[in-house]
Amino acid sequence: MNLKMNEYIKNRLSEEMILGQLMEECAELIQAAHKVIRSRQVVNRPHGDCDYVAALEEEIADVMLCVSKLSCIDGDKIESWIISKEARWEQRLRE
Question: Is 16 within 8 Å of 69 (Cβ atoms)?
Answer without folding.
Answer: no
